[in-house]
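Input set for joint prediction.
Command: fold jointly, output tokens.
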Amino acid sequence: MISYQLSHLGALEAEAIHILREMAAERERPCLLFSGGKDSIVLLRLAEKAFRPARFPFPFLHVDTGHNFPEVIEYRDRRAQQLGERLIVARVEDSIASGRVVEEKGPRASRNRLQTTTLLDAIEAHQFDACIGGARRDEERARAKERIFSHRDEFGQWDPKNQRPELWSLYNTRLRKGEHFRVFPISNWTELDVWSYIQREKIDLPSIYFSHRRTVYRRDGMLYATAPFTELLPGESTFEETVRFRTVGDMSCTGAVMSDASTIEQVIEEVAASRVTERGATRADDRFTEAAMEDRKKEGYF
Amino acid sequence: MEPQNVREPVAMEEGADLLRFSTCGSVDDGKSTLIGRLLYDTKSIFEDQLQHVEDVSRRRGDEYTNLALLTDGLRAEREQGITIDVAYRYFATPRRKFIIADTPGHIQYTRNMVTGASTANLAIVLVDARKGLVEQSRRHSFIASLLRIPHIVFAVNKMDLVDFREARFREIESEFRNFASKLDVQDIAFIPVSALKGDNVVERSENMPWYKGSPLLHHLETVHIASDRNLIDVRFPVQWVIRPQSESAEHRDYRGYAGQVAGGVLKKGDEVMALPSGFTSRIARIDTFDGPVDEAFAPASVTVHLETNLDVSRGDMLCRPANKPMVGQDLDAMVCWMSDQPLTARSRLAIKHTTRWVRAMVTNLQYKLDMNTLHREDGVTQFGLNDIGRVQLRTTAPLFYDEYRRNRTTGSFLLVDESTNQTVGAGMLLSEPR
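tokens >
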């Protein structure tokens, strides 16, 4: 006898596909924010499930800080080509060159915050009215409160205290000109759900998610990869370590974890047993203040 | 808190499913403590999250680690020590993954409670064992029944403060059963707990040997939800038409109707009718990215191919010729109003129902409910923020709908203000108006 009950991953997948199709049907100019990270990689598979055999009704947009992991950039280009979909790259370096933002200086400089301007400029230039993102509510406190169709005003700002109620699976997709949505189809997934889905779907990932030898330095208790732009602080030194990355962001603020997990099964085992959240373990950008993410999101960050 | 209760691995069993539940309770009922206890005792809290809560508790001068802070996400909530908005929390046991919609209980947040309840399979209503049935509990239970949450758990909390006495628990239970008989709820459970001490939350309480039922978590893990969905009435609102723009022979004639099954079981070969046209055809194939399937049931997202080429587009609905939804422009509904701007007769609004948008005018405000006594107040001229009542509407185009109690997907709608684009109301359809 058939049980007529979807598994928990099946139910999450069905919800995400529904969200993607609602967005495609009701917004005129969507895009998918593709970073080459595992969450946006899962979005690509969900988009295949929602729209194939037709082409995706949106291009991909990547905000390239110029400080990304080369393995991830390679993956990004390869995946876009495999899928035969259009990739738009917005570069923070262009925002710096045109004077829209000013590069931070010194060993602690990061382009993480500068990305917001580049992103909002790209949204305006292409007149995108919906940007699909891979954010999840389990990632961070402010995100736990965010809607699936999350409204941004004409300045790209999020107003957490004035969000539209979101009921059933009915999404209010209406906007005024100049405003846009951030749409989060995997809002209800946890980190472990994402990994279990990657395993179930046999999805290929950038190599940095798996254990490898890398030259790193230690700062504020975290291990960072050395990059051509790295400036060490007095007392810091580089050394080789066996690591993997749990999240993928700008090299300047994404920490590595020591790990021997070299297969998806081993990664899942490690994630399931992890005692620290992925952002807590690896993201310097959330550490500034208690409400770091809330503040950045209000400004228009991912 | 003992560090050994920090997160441990969960290996989910084959076939583990998903349960969404909402929690409602007022500030002092211990709701956040209960959620904190569930997360903590199931070892779902990460070290850095716990560290954060401890730091903030200390800074605020709390005498104990305030688990409520785990669910307060926004700066304003932490500063004011209140929950403003629905927060979603996640945890899993080998049997199930759980999504908690944690909703504030105060009357001024009724709309948030309705929001959290709209997707829930189960509601936990917190009751203070010392106070018993109070106005808040009536309101919370009523909202759960109005939103057709199939399972309600009354968690009689703070049993430690009434010396774990069975008599007190039974007294509250009978008081609630009496009240609940007026509500339309399929399944009710009563569990005596102490969220603060952990009695009957995850572990069975040794302090209440007289209680023979399941502890809360075991109840959540085993409550039967498979038959909550409507598997009888085939309803497939078309969301998106897949038509590849390619010259390849394989896809030249591809025309698939994509959507999420809202009711019933679609089977290959079944005769179906498309609404509004009324034309019939048969299901030639049910596609997914992973290949064709023989049947599909709610809430699967699939692509349906018909044997003949009907003109079907987004907003249309597929059903069985002998089992059609109601089709009409005159609607009778219970509405929860969510805006500061009042709802009045003659109000003009946009409606989103399944995959359709239509315009509507309110033709009559029939009555408003007093949320504490559940008495009907006739002759009202407007609904204010958080009011719930019965209204009649006239739409510009027909909707294909079912009674909300029969199908939560085809029986629900949003009301949207076309000048501000705000979602201003939530509606649940009643049977066909006279």
